Each structure stands twice: as structure tokens, then as C-alpha cells.
Recover the amino acids of this structure.
């Protein structure tokens, strides 16, 4: 790997970060909305409620952090990808010396950094404003789990982003995002759902990502079933999206 | 190795139609090379084959002696493509710097802003630029790596007259530094002004190849036009020696001839009823129309 390629990958990554931060939709849906939701639902539900043995405000902090990370990985990621294809930007990049792996790596790296920032912001808000007091281990494990799980949603975002219509991608990714968030129990805990709804939730990656964080806060051991389901999503969507993209490029 | 581009019997079939038909071509380094042709002639397809963006159905393509998909080769070229919009949410200078980071020996940001005339726009969002300015940004990106071969697909579409003049100056300066410039255009004036060599293609095949003046000389002579009085008939004009073609636009007659000096003398000697006489040499425009055998809109 040459010095130029490293420089190019870092440059590409920086550009991705700038584009995301300047995207108002991203800031609203992935940062401001989870924070506001968190305040609204912890105020209205009351301080001493518990879900599965965990304080409501701890539980809901995890839900909303997952909600923010999923939104960023799914919607703004898919939208940036789709825009680059439809606006001819990707064809132009293909004739530059930027290797295609560097393009992919910088995208994933930038999104990983963004997700990390969202987790830190949410945890700081919870810790400072709502005085949430978790053990260092619980903070770390839940944060790490959400961060790693975020990559599953990038692979879904990549598949949606392969559609060459940026407006449609925006709507579709929103529907999938909202749908999976509500059905997966990020807005309202699955404990309040009917058993049918709960069964649906249990196969969704949103629930499985939340579960990892909720378990970490409850001090429960990792649910390997859930991890397996998340990994399954990554594999399936990575294979699908790289197949679709390769097919589009073969001309 | 003085060949910048080499195409050997290259064909490209799209949905059963031949977009490029057995094309062979060699472009020497340091040439300003113009690819001319009507819409759908195969210009853009040819460029995309040379750039390795598309695979030829048969034949082979060499760019700077190698495979255009090779990263080492890509480091030495740059291109301004059609239908590429600027990237969203990045400023002009940020976009240029991003592209500079891809190449081993990039030109300086200042230099790129200067040749594209975007010094005052460098802190603006790229998406807020006017159409012509966006094209110039595209040019700055193509030039970012200080390329040995630069491809410009319809570069001046959407530029105003001043931008276009300035752009031509820049192209000439690049050629003076020994760079190879490949451009496609349907502005014939552009090819006439800039190119050392013009290749005209139609239906994926080469129909003419030479300097702009060679192509003009080969295809058309000169034209005498006048408003004819009632006594002048088409038949009379056709009978005149040396008249290749007669065109009518109302009572305005256009006579094509290889030797207009002799023809004008004849017309006057025979006392033809003529007003507002003009003698013009056929431009590349006429040559082009003759070659592709269709009436253009200009």
C-alpha cells in the first residue's frame, strides 16, 4: 500500500465526515431526534419504572442510542451511496487512481466514526443530564455492542444505496428505518407488545442490537443467538449488495 | 513509445447495435486530438472504451502503452466526463483537494483554481456553482493529477463565451507543455481552433482523419451565394462548368465549386441577374455536414 493510497483513503474519509455533518437530515434524525425522544419518554413515563429489571431511563437510553446509530447507518449512508451513483460521481472516481477497496474502506471507516460519535453524545447526555450511573463495564460493553452492530445496518444501507434513484432511496430507507425501529422495540419495549408482535421483533436486527445493549446494562451475559442473527444480517446483505453492485458495473 | 492511445479493431456492441465498429486509431503524444461526430455517433462510447470504463466486445485498447484499468496508468490521466454532477456538501477547494489526494504528483490547489478560473469561488459549496462553473470545476478535477493525457468530453457545453475563450487558452497551454489532449465536441469552431488532428466518426466508424484544414480541403471547395433574379433557373446554374452543387433558400442560391474565382467570372460574363453576392470558403461545419451526410441544426 503506497503513501498516496493511504493519503487518498484518509482524504476520502474526511470528505465523508464533512458531508455527513453538513447533512441537515442526518443531524435531525440521528442526533437531535433520539435526544429529544429520550427526554420526552423518560419524563412522561416516570423515573422509577423498570423494564426487565432495568431502570426505564437506562433502558431507554440504550434504545435511543441504537435508534440513532441505525438511522445514521441506514438512511444517510444509503442516500450518500445512491447519490454518488446517480450523479455520475462513481464513474468519475473509477478512472482515478483511487483503488475501489479504498473507497469502500473509507466509507465504512467514516460511518464507524460517526456512529461512535452518536454513541458518545447519547451516553454523555444520559450520564450528565439524566445522571445515569452504570458501571464502567456496562457503559463499555453496551457502547461496543451498539458500535459493532452498527455495521450490520451499513450493509443493509449499502443494498438500499445501490438503487439508482436518490429520492426513492430516501423514502425507502426512511420507511425501513422507522418500521424496523418501531417493530424492533426501540420506541416502545417489546414487553408491552402482543406475542405476535414480539415474535416479529425477535427476528429484526434492530431488536437484536437493542437486546445486546439492554443485556449489558442488566448485567446479563451476551445472548449469542442475537449475535448470530446480527452476523447473519451482515453476511446476507453484504453478499447481496456486492452482487448487485458488481452486476451494475459489468458493462 | 510516442503513442498515447492505441485502438486495434475495437468494436462495442450494445443491445445488438454496433456503437463502435471496428475502429483502429493511434494518437501520438503531445497532440490535441478532437473526436467529432453527430449525436449518437459513438464519441462518448469510444472515450469510455479508451478509459477502460467499458469493455470492448472485440479488439484491444492501450492507453500510455498499458491497460487503462491499471492504477499506475490512471495516475497519469485525467478526465472530464459528461453527466457528472458535483459532489454534494463539499466546497470547491475541498473537492479539488480530495481529488489531489488521489494522485502521486498533484498540481497545487492555487494552480488548479487559477486554470479553472475559480479563485473567487473556492470557499463556495460546489453545488451552488452555476452550470458553467461546475464544468470548470470538472476541468480542475481532470487536471488535478497533472495528467499526461487529459480527456474532455464535450467540455465547453454550458460555458459562456468568455469562459470558453479562457478554457481554450488553458488547453493550448497544456498542449504547449507536451500534454496530450483528447476532446469530443460538437462545436466545430472548437475543433477548428484547438485541434492538431480531427477524426470524424459516424455510426461508430471513422469517416475522416486529418488536420482541420486537410479535412476542409478534402470535402468542400468554396461557396458563392447570391439572391437570384426571376430569370435565373436551377437548370441554368447546374449547367455552369465547375458547379458541384446548387442549394436554394427561397431566391437565395448557394453554388458549391472547387474554383470559385473562375465561376464568379463566368457568372458575371454571362450577365446573370444577381444581387448581394458573397463568396465564402466552406468551414469545418460544411465539411462536417458533407461527411456525415445530414443537415445539422447550426
Amino acid at each position: 500500500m503506497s503513501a498516496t493510497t493511504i493519503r487518498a483513503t484518509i482524504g476520502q474519509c474526511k470528505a465523508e465526515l464533512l458531508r455527513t455533518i453538513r447533512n441537515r437530515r442526518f443531524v435531525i434524525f440521528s442526533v437531535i431526534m433520539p435526544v429529544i425522544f429520550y427526554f420526552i419518554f423518560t419524563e412522561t413515563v416516570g423515573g422509577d419504572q423498570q423494564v426487565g429489571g432495568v431502570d426505564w431511563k437506562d433502558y431507554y437510553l440504550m434504545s435511543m442510542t441504537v435508534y440513532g446509530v441505525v438511522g445514521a447507518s441506514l438512511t444517510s449512508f444509503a442516500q450518500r451511496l445512491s447519490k454518488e451513483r446517480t450523479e455520475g460521481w462513481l464513474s468519475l472516481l473509477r478512472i482515478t487512481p483511487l483503488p475501489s477497496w479504498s473507497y469502500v474502506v473509507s466509507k465504512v471507516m467514516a460511518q464507524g466514526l460517526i456512529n461512535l460519535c452518536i454513541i458518545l453524545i447519547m451516553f454523555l447526555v444520559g450520564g450528565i443530564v439524566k445522571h445515569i450511573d452504570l458501571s464502567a463495564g456496562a457503559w463499555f460493553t453496551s457502547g461496543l455492542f451498539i458500535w459493532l452492530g452498527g455495521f450490520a445496518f451499513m450493509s443493509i444501507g449499502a443494498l438500499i444505496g445501490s438503487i439508482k434513484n436518490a429520492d426513492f432511496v430516501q423514502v425507502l430507507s426512511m420507511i425501513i428505518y422507522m418500521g424496523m425501529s418501531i417493530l424492533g422495540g426501540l420506541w416502545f419495549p417489546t414487553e408491552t407488545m402482543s406475542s405476535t408482535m414480539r415474535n416479529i421483533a425477535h427476528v429484526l436486527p434492530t431488536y437484536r442490537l437493542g437486546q445486546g445493549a439492554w443485556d449489558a446494562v442488566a448485567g446479563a451475559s451476551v445472548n449469542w443467538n442475537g449475535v448470530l442473527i446480527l452476523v447473519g444480517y451482515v453476511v446476507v446483505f453484504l453478499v447481496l449488495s456486492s452482487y448487485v453492485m458488481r452486476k451494475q458495473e459489468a458493462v | 513509445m510516442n503513442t498515447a492511445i492505441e485502438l486495434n479493431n475495437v468494436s462495442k456492441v450494445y443491445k445488438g447495435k454496433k456503437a463502435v465498429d471496428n475502429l483502429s486509431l493511434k494518437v501520438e503524444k503531445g497532440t490535441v486530438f478532437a473526436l467529432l461526430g453527430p449525436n449518437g455517433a459513438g464519441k462518448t462510447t469510444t472515450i469510455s472504451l479508451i478509459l477502460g470504463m467499458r469493455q470492448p466486445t472485440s479488439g484491444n485498447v492501450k492507453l500510455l502503452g498499458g491497460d487503462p484499468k491499471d492504477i499506475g496508468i490512471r495516475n497519469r490521466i485525467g478526465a472530464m466526463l459528461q453527466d457528472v454532477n458535483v459532489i454534494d456538501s463539499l466546497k470547491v477547494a475541498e473537492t479539488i483537494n480530495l481529488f489531489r489526494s488521489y494522485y502521486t504528483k498533484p498540481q497545487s490547489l492555487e494552480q488548479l483554481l487559477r486554470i479553472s478560473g475559480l479563485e473567487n469561488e473556492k470557499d463556495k459549496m460546489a453545488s451552488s456553482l452555476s452550470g458553467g462553473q461546475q464544468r470548470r470545476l470538472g476541468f480542475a478535477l481532470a487536471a488535478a493529477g497533472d495528467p499526461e493525457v487529459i480527456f474532455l468530453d464535450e467540455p465547453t457545453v454550458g460555458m459562456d463565451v468568455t469562459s470558453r475563450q479562457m478554457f481554450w487558452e488553458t488547453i493550448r497551454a497544456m498542449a504547449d507543455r507536451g500534454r496530450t489532449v483528447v476532446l469530443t465536441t460538437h462545436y466545430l469552431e472548437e475543433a477548428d481552433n484547438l485541434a492538431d488532428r480531427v477524426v470524424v466518426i459516424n455510426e461508430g466508424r471513422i469517416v475522416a482523419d486529418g488536420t482541420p484544414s486537410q479535412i476542409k480541403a478534402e470535402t468542400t471547395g468554396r461557396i458563392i451565394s447570391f439572391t437570384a433574379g426571376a430569370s435565373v433557373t436551377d437548370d441554368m446554374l447546374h449547367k455552369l462548368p465547375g458547379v458541384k452543387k446548387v442549394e436554394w433558400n427561397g431566391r437565395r442560391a448557394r453554388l458549391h465549386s472547387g474554383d470559385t474565382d473562375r465561376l464568379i467570372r463566368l457568372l458575371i460574363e454571362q450577365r446573370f441577374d444577381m444581387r448581394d453576392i458573397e463568396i465564402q470558403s466552406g468551414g469545418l461545419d460544411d465539411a462536417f455536414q458533407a461527411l456525415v451526410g445530414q443537415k445539422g441544426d447550426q
User: Anything to note?
Assistant: Residues 50 and 108 of chain A are 36 Å apart (CA to CA). Strands of chain A lie at 50-51, 54-55.
